[in-house]
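The material for today's practical consists of a large collection of protein records. A record pairs a protein's sequence with a compact description of its fold. Instead of coordinates, the fold is spelled out as a row of discrete tokens. We will come back to this pairing of sequence and fold again and again. Here is such a record, shown just as it appears in the course material.
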Amino acid sequence: MTDEKSERHPADTRRTPDATMSLLNELMTHTMDEGYTEAATRKRDDQSSGNGGGGAMAAAVLAMFGVLVAVAFIETERAAPADAEERSQLIERVDVESARVEQLRESVATLQEDVSTLQGDLASVTGSSNDLNARIQELSMRYGTEPVSGPGMVITVDDASGGDPTGEVLDTDLQALVSGLWAAGAEAVSINDQRITSTTSIRTAGAAINVNTRSLTRPYVIRAIGNPATLPARLAETPGGEAMWELRINAGVRYENEVATEITVPGRSMSRLRYADVPKGSE
């Protein structure tokens, strides 16, 4: 029985308390595996060697920077005389140009004074010229050398139909009619586009009436520039106007007139006046 019990229950293999404590002490003392420890040691060594290389590179960069600064300083010192000379030349040019600008300013001031003087002279001449032009215009209208346009009246005169000698328009009839127009306030008069001036002659030459030595053909168209509101009535009150109305009524002469807002009386080219003088020694 005893043997059988011994076979069923072999000897107790549990560790003693001392053995268990020894294992715990080892775990507490060696917390990391030796392989991990060696790897960590190698990493620290590599980092130490790397930091040493970075310091050498920084020193090299600083040395190169110092060389560059030294070179720049040397170049600046070399260029200093050239810069000073260039600066001196620039200052000299500025002084020259400043003097030139001052001369130009003085010239401009002088020219402005001259312009002011000329403008005053021009104003005086312009005023005189305007007066002269007005005088020329007045004389041109009076002597008929320039065409004139404006309102007025148009008169048509012709012989009576039927060939009655009493109904024939004479040069004296036209002379009286033109004189009546001047008296009524006409400013310019023409007969068949022949301007009537102070030197105009209206006379019969052969079978025709001549004006300014030009033969006229019937009918006789008389244009007179003046106030159309008063010119016809004033003309009718003149001897020339009354005579034409009598010829119309008694002899059948054609005498018609109408006012116009715009008519043109042509100018006359002035012929050169000739005169005679007694020869010297003939008296």
